[in-house]
Amino acid sequence: MRLTVEGAATRLEGPLLFLRRTLDVGLYDAVEVRGGDGRTRLGRIAAIDEAFMTIEVLESTSGLALPDTVVRFFGEPLTFGLSPSILGRVFNGVGQVIDGGPPIAARQTHRIEGLPINPVARAGPRDFIETGVTALDLMNSLVRGQKLPIFSGGGLPHDRLAVEIASHARLRQGPDATGGDFAIVFAGIGVPYDSAEFFRKSLEQCGALERTALFLNLASDSSTQRLLTPRFALTAAEYLAFVEGKHVLAILTDMTNYAEALREVSSSKGEIPSRKGFPGYMYSDLASLFERAGCIRGAKGTLTQLSILTMPADDIGHPIPDLTGYITEGQIVLSRDLDRRAIYPPIDVLPSLSRLMKDGTGGQYTHPDHPALSSQLYAAYARAVQARVLASVVGEEGLAAADRQYLAFGAAFEDQLVSQSEPRTLEQSMEVGWRLLAGLPVTELTRLSDAQIAAHLGVKP
User: Fold this and answer.
1) Are residues 184 and 97 in the same domain?
2) At residue 23, does pLDDT exceed 90?
3) 91 within 8 A of 220, measured Cβ to Cβ
4) Could you tell me if 453 and 347 lie in one domain?
5) Pick from 190, 188, 193: which is nearest to 226 by CA?
6) φ/ψ (deg, to 5) at 285
7) How many domains are contained in the chain?
8) Is 325 helix (H, G, I), strand (E, B) or coil?
9) CB 166 within 8 A of CB 206
């Protein structure tokens, strides 16, 4: 039942409209706000108490005058009409088609808040997702059903990396995999217009848009709309995964813009701030998004999340990356130092981690020698970084012969393995790794078995 209220508006602050409570309504119920200019704006109820209610208006509030404001209550939460035809389409931050094509003929309607996955129904993430990025595929593998964030910084090429992953990602399934097509849900959150056009044109030109549902929320859009963009995108991803049976990779960028919008809206509501002005519930709010990834027993499809956030002042201890790291299963860290040296993608391997890599790599998923090769490369690169620190003190000439070999290995590791000009298959990435290890003494390869050394390096230990 839809009810209309006039003359109840008391205050307008940015995207928030404050009304006297004259009806029995529910939190997050959808509303329609109409001003004296005749425009209708979508919104939802964000807060309720005994006397007042707060409405998040999802469009510009310019032109709204309190005496002329009429609010229509829908009596139900915001929903999103979905069908398989959402693939290949472009939407704004609240699920409206903006590519000039026809509207979506909805087959099902889903609440954008989603439904929590019963922990008992969750299945362990399995199977390797090949992204074409060596530092990910070989060193920090992404597993189907995982939630893995990328920690970037302002000015670093995370947008380019996101598009390349969306363009080249594919699922390599183990023997117990459940089949299903592979699809991408890509959400640009609070991005400038030129970045939004870059996402759209790049996916279109490489042919990836056909398997992608693209959501674009611009920096000029309201902060309240920014809070809903990942929810609309993840609702579409859940539908494709758990209804249509597809294996979905959801790429969300930039979650820092989402968190900043959360802080702005929270401040407008008058809520008591916590660390650095962010609301105290930011952890649970982020968890409500990240925990929508996973595998469900008996379901054919799965949902994997790759969320990108820019660390303010490159501070990994900032509340946004700090809380994200507690919720997700690892992190991929981009390095400003590598970027300054023109190494792309500038992935800093040592602080990066994929906690579920062991569950999706190895014999039946990738290659039997993949885990050992990755471990040995990690150990050797860590030793190379230590040798650099020592060289900065005593000079390269003062280093032992083994340390000078590790210095050369570290430079080659960054220039040949981390840096790449085109996507690589896992097999190509492993070939590069074996070639680099061939430059080290066999006695240093303690993470490899004698059989692996003989098979790949042609050396008898």
Assistant:
1) yes
2) no
3) no
4) no
5) 190
6) -65, -45
7) 3
8) helix
9) no
- Residue 179's pLDDT is 47
Task: Please count the other Cβ atoms lying within 10 Å of the Cβ belonging to residue 16.
Answer: 23
Q: Is the pLDDT of residue 239 over 70?
A: yes
Query: Same domain for 173 and 211?
Result: yes
**Structure tokens that stand for 76 in this block:** 């139900």
Rounded distance between C-alpha atoms, residue 274 and residue 276, angstroms: 6
CATH number, domain of 25, equals 2.40.10.170
Domain stop point among 77, 111, 141: 77
- Identify whether the C-beta of residue 166 lies closer than 8 Å to the C-beta of residue 184: yes
Q: Please state the rounded mean pLDDT for residues 424-432.
A: 95
Predicted structure pTM score: 0.92
Q: Do 284 and 406 have their domain in common?
A: no
- What is the pLDDT confidence band of residue 178, given thresholds at 50, 70 and 90? very low
CA pair distance 163, 199, nearest whole angstrom: 7
Tokens of 423: 């996507």
DSSP string, 405-437: HHHHHHHHIIIIII--SS---HHHHHHHHHHHH
Q: Give the domain extent around 336.
A: 80-360
Token pair listed for 204: 């279109």
